[in-house]
């Protein structure tokens, strides 16, 4: 049947072709007949004309008519001749396939059948010009004219595309074509108007009602108005000389006289005639409804993508109030896919409309902190595109500073951040394009300023390290250009500041303006130096040739805070750069050494003193010149003075020191400790007179004996250490001073000395001092406790650097190394000191993880951010370690919150495990925080304080379930660890507000809750019955006969019956009532999760943890905005029992209290 159908279809096509050929043959015969008649008529006219002229006269009017007739006849003959040439070519296919054939013209040209002879074209042009003069060209039928123009157009295209010359003159110019068709359309409009007027006049004569007459009149006026508008358009089109010239040029280049504006107008006009166009508002309304009201995530996402495609074509749609409102609302949708689609739409809109960037930039910046990784990546892509397309946008530095913060994000986000800055900053620029390079440096300066203000320079350093450590050639070349431009910029700013200081001002306003300008220049200078510092930390070799340029900054008179910061940055750069110089001159090294020594002697701050001495040490140990560093003289002066003061205080302990002397002692203490750390003065100083001044006659080395002497790695006894021991003696003496300022400065200096020589930490006196400080709760020693931790941190950093250096040197002589000795030497004293400091004794890597987890709940965002970064690194390097101590971390988090509450003035509030979102992806309007509780009012505005911990564990299904089970087991009756009611509330808060993403997570929590409540509830009931006395007959209020309540649990749990069976000691019943709060909290938690995620009871009963992962590992379709988790009964009990007074405990002996207890148990 299929073959028969195909054959029948083919037969019909052949029949249609035969009919078409037959019709064409008949048309051709008719044309030939008419042509012969026209030729014969033409001959007769010529003959009659000659006869008439020979006879004498002929009217001018008749002669013109004859000429017009003659010209028309000739034109028809010429056109027929052209048509005869292309008789076998289908002109319809040529018209339809013109676009495809046009692309091939450049190579092959057109078919030979379409090429018209030059002589024929000349005759055609002559006849057309005659008819144009007489305005009789319109007598040619439109079909013949279109066919002729098509043939001539193909000829012109071929000539122009082949060799660029025009062999054929356009027969009908584009200008005339436009005029011709405009006039034809104008004429048709006039004819239509006449016909319209006639019909309207006829309708007025008809016997119609007045209402119908009014309708006809209204319709007539609308049609007339439309016709008038068309006439105006055509007249305006005829008057555009500029467009006529553009059409002519367009036709020369592309073979078509239509402009882009004409094409757009035609498309709009044709599209407006379609029914679909008139339904646009309806479709748009349905799309907006799907975005705002649809509950299914996939449909909301698809609707948003539909709207994105519409806005790509017409940006004005987003300016409609209902569309704009829907987009703003979906920016805070509960699902990340919808938020991503919305961000993508707004991104395309702002990239196409630069004026809208200031309006939508705050929304995009907020989404950069979104919980969805895909959303953050989409925002970064949009911001990068804005930076590339609109480099003059004023918020670009702020935008880049916000992107820098995400360099510590997920791996995918980090990679995108690196690619962004690689393309924006670390691509070489042409040496001639100085403005572009200068603009790049200015933007970098502003970004560094913002990062420095927000304490985010660590993120910028990580960015530079990730981009430059790999040694990519293009990145290094771009870095050299940037560094050179930064150095020029630094010198320019310095010159400006010097000029401003040299100009005197007379008025206070000028002084104020000059001070503000000076401050701005200082901030810019500091930002430039911060950037150079980052380069010096990552690639110090790039700054080697600028070392001598930086040296003069050491001589600056730093009095203000900003100037001191500039000086410290320069010294830090020199410390990293100068040791890399190949052959510095002796004069340079001597000048450098003396300048830094003078800075040390005049420095007043601990930071400046430390960086200066560290810089001197690095340079001197690298080159060994000069033989005796200038710092040795400063050290001798400081130590001699401190020894004299120490000896004087030993002789007169009660002597008071004046303030200038105290300040001097503080400065000297700090300097001596740092100098003794970085220089071995026992080897440098060979001055017997100095030794006589500082060494007492009965000098004794510090007692370094410990309980386990094998832990100490003693130095060789022949190595000199008298000066160092004397420094330790002085610092330890002042560490026990009665003056808090002296005690603190000496303790800081002692930390520097112990960082280099850890054996002093083994000294019993030092160990006891650290133990006393770290175990003390005295608020007067808070600063000393913090400094003790900083000293230990400095010591551990120093030990780590020693291990890194030893590892780098291992390859040089690894064949001669002994493994046992390597193990003993590699461990160092770091672990020994940590074990002695930590009260638990042996320290394992997992010991501190629980404490780190607790610190993620700190109220300070900067602390939370740094600790979460550390946990991320631990989880990356040691998989599973966080999960093993997660439950312990949850409990420690509560203990931390408890200590924070006790240290604040408001110690009465209940500790909760919920806080307001920093940047809420579901932010609601209006007041978000309830002032009575300090918590968000609704779930969309809050998050668990331990959200960061759960985010680390939720990626692995097994780890996630193990963690949730262990945390929920804390509510179980058989749990080994009995929690207080307030701690139960804290844990429940976190479980309620964890950032669940797939259905399995909340359903597993609900399933585990049901299991725990069923077991613990039954256990509580059994224990309650066990404490009751034996049953006795009693009369129920609704019964007249006595009944044994042991036979009926319903009667047992009535207040009167239960009260009658209370034992003499009711304390255990009160304790059981308190323990039952765990079940109530879990039931409230279950109901909250079901409301939050829209689960029905049937869905909960259907869930099984043993199902395959793909069944429930699906994204949660919705998260509703419900009132915040708030177990009122438990909170009320917590306030009563955890306050300073306990009225319930005082009332446990009254009859009313016992009856209330019976009522609560029954309830």
UniProtKB/TrEMBL annotation:
Residues 1-20, 25-65 are annotated as: Disordered. One of its GO terms (biological process) is establishment of mitotic sister chromatid cohesion. Residues 186-213 form a coiled coil. It is found in: Nucleus. GO terms for cellular component: Scc2-Scc4 cohesin loading complex. Keywords: Cell cycle, Coiled coil, Nucleus, Repeat. InterPro entries: ARM-like (IPR011989), ARM-type_fold (IPR016024), Nipped-B_C (IPR024986), Scc2/Nipped-B (IPR033031). Residues 37-58 have a biased composition (Polar residues). Pfam families: Nipped-B_C, PDS5. Its main location: nucleus. Residues 25-36 have a biased composition (Basic and acidic residues). Residues 832-1012 form the Sister chromatid cohesion C-terminal domain. Gene3D superfamilies: Leucine-rich Repeat Variant. PANTHER family: NIPPED-B-LIKE PROTEIN, NIPPED-B-LIKE PROTEIN DELANGIN SCC2-RELATED. This is Nipped-B protein. It comes from Teladorsagia circumcincta (Brown stomach worm).
């Amino acid at each position: 049947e299929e073959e028969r159908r195909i054959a029948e279809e083919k037969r019909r096509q052949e029949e249609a072709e035969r009919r078409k050929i037959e019709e064409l043959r008949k048309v051709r015969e008719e044309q030939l007949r008419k042509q012969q008649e026209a030729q014969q008529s033409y001959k007769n006219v010529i003959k009659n004309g000659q006869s008439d002229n020979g006879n004498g006269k002929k009217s001018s009017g008749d002669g013109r008519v004859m000429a017009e007739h003659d010209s028309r006849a000739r034109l028809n003959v010429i056109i027929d001749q052209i048509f005869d040439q292309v008789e076998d070519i289908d002109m319809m296919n040529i018209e339809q396939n013109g676009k495809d054939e046009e692309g091939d013209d450049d190579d092959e040209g057109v078919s030979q059948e379409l090429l018209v002879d030059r002589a024929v074209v000349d005759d055609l042009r002559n006849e057309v010009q005659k008819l144009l003069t007489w305005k009789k060209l319109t007598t040619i039928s439109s079909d013949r004219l279109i066919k002729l123009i098509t043939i001539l157009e193909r000829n012109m295209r071929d000539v122009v595309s082949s060799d660029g010359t025009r062999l054929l003159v356009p027969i009908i110019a584009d200008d005339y074509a436009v005029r011709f068709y405009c006039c034809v359309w104008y004429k048709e409009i006039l004819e239509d108007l006449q016909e319209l007027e006639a019909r309207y006049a006829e309708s007025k004569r008809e016997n119609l009602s007045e209402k119908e007459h009014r309708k006809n009149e209204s319709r007539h006026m609308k049609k007339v108005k439309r016709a008038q508008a068309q006439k105006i358009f055509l007249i305006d089109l005829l008057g555009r000389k500029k467009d006529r010239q553009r059409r002519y040029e367009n036709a020369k280049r592309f073979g078509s006289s239509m402009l882009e504006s004409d094409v757009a107008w035609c498309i709009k006009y044709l599209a407006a005639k379609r029914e679909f166009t008139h339904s646009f508002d309806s479709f748009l309304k349905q799309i907006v409804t799907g975005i705002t009201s649809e509950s299914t995530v996939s449909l909301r996402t698809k609707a948003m993508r539909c709207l994105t495609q519409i806005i790509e074509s017409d940006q004005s749609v987003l300016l409609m109030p209902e569309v704009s409102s829907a987009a703003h609302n979906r920016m805070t949708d509960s699902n990340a896919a919808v938020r991503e689609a919305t961000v993508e739409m707004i991104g395309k809109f702002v990239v196409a409309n630069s004026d809208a960037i200031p309006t939508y930039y705050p929304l995009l910046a907020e989404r950069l902190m979104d919980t969805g990784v895909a959303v953050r990546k989409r925002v970064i892509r949009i911001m990068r595109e804005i930076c590339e397309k609109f480099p003059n946008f004023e918020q670009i530095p702020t935008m880049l500073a916000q992107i820098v913060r995400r360099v510590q994000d997920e791996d995918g986000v980090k990679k995108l951040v690196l690619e962004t800055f690689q393309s924006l900053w670390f691509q070489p620029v042409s040496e001639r394009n100085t403005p572009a390079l200068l603009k790049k440096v200015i933007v970098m300066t502003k970004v560094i300023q913002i990062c420095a203000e927000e304490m985010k320079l660590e993120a910028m350093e990580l960015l530079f390290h990730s981009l430059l450590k790999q040694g990519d050639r293009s990145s290094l070349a771009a870095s050299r250009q940037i560094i050179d431009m930064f150095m020029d910029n630094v010198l320019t700013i310095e010159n400006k500041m010097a000029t401003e200081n040299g100009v005197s001002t007379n008025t206070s306003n000028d002084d104020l303006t000059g001070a503000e300008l000076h401050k701005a220049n200082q901030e810019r200078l500091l930002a430039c130096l911060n950037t150079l510092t980052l380069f010096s930390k990552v690639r110090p070799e790039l700054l080697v040739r600028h070392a001598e340029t930086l040296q003069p900054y050491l001589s600056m008179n730093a009095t203000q805070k900003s100037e001191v910061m500039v000086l410290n940055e320069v010294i830090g750069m020199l410390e990293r750069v100068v040791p890399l110089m190949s052959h510095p001159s002796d004069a340079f090294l001597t000048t450098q050494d003396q300048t830094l020594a003078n800075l040390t002697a005049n420095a007043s701050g601990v930071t400046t003193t430390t960086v200066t001495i560290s810089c001197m040490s690095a340079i001197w140990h690298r080159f060994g010149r000069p033989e005796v560093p200038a710092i040795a003289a400063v050290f001798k002066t400081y130590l001699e003075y401190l020894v004299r003061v120490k000896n004087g205080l030993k002789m007169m302990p009660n002597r008071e020191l004046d303030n200038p002397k105290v300040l001097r002692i503080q400065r000297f203490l700090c300097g001596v400790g740092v100098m003794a750390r970085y220089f071995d003065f026992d080897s440098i100083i060979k001055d017997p007179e100095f030794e006589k001044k500082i060494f007492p006659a009965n000098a004794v080395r510090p007692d370094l004996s410990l309980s386990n002497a094998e832990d100490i790695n003693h130095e060789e006894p022949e190595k000199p250490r008298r000066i160092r021991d004397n420094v330790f003696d002085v610092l330890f003496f002042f560490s026990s001073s009665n003056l808090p300022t002296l005690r603190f400065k000496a303790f800081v200096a002692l930390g520097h000395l112990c960082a280099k020589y850890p054996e002093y930490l083994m000294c019993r006196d030092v160990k006891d001092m650290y133990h006393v400080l770290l175990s003390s709760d005295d608020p007067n020693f808070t600063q000393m406790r913090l400094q003790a931790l900083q000293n230990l941190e400095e010591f551990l950093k120093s030990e780590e650097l020693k291990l890194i250096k030893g590892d780098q040197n291992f390859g040089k002589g690894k064949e001669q190394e002994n493994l046992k000795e390597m193990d003993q030497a590699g461990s160092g004293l770091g672990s020994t000191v940590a074990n002695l400091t930590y009260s638990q004794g042996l320290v394992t890597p997992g010991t501190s993880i629980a404490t780190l987890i607790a610190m993620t709940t700190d109220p300070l965002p900067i602390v939370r951010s740094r600790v979460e970064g550390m946990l991320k690194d631990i989880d990356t390097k040691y998989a599973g370690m966080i999960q093993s101590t997660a439950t312990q971390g949850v409990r420690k988090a509560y203990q931390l919150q408890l200590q924070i509450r006790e240290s604040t003035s408001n110690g009465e509030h209940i500790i909760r495990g919920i806080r307001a979102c920093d940047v809420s992806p579901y932010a609601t309007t209006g007041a978000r925080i309830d002032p009575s509780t300090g918590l968000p009012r609704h779930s969309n505005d809050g998050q668990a304080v331990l959200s960061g911990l759960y985010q680390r564990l939720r990626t692995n299904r097994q780890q996630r379930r193990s963690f949730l089970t262990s945390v929920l087991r804390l509510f179980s009756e058989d749990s080994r660890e009995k929690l207080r009611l307030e701690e139960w509330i804290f844990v429940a808060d976190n479980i309620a507000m964890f950032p669940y993403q797939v259905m399995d997570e909340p359903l597993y929590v609900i399933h585990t809750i049901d299991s725990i409540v069923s077991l613990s509830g039954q256990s509580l009931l059994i224990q309650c019955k066990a404490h009751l006395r034996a049953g006795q007959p009693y009369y129920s209020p609704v019964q007249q006969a006595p009944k044994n309540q042991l036979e009926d649990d319903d009667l047992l749990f009535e207040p009167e019956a239960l009260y009658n069976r209370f034992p003499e000691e009711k304390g255990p019943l009160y304790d059981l009532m308190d323990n039952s709060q765990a079940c109530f909290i879990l039931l409230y938690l279950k109901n909250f999760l079901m409301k939050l995620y829209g689960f029905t009871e049937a869905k909960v009963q259907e869930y099984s943890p043993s199902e395959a992962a793909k069944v429930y590992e699906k994204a949660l379709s919705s998260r509703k905005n419900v009132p915040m988790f708030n177990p009122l009964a438990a909170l009320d009990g917590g306030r009563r029992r955890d306050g300073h007074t306990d009225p319930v405990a005082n009332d446990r002996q009254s009859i009313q209290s016992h009856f209330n207890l019976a009522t609560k148990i029954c309830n």
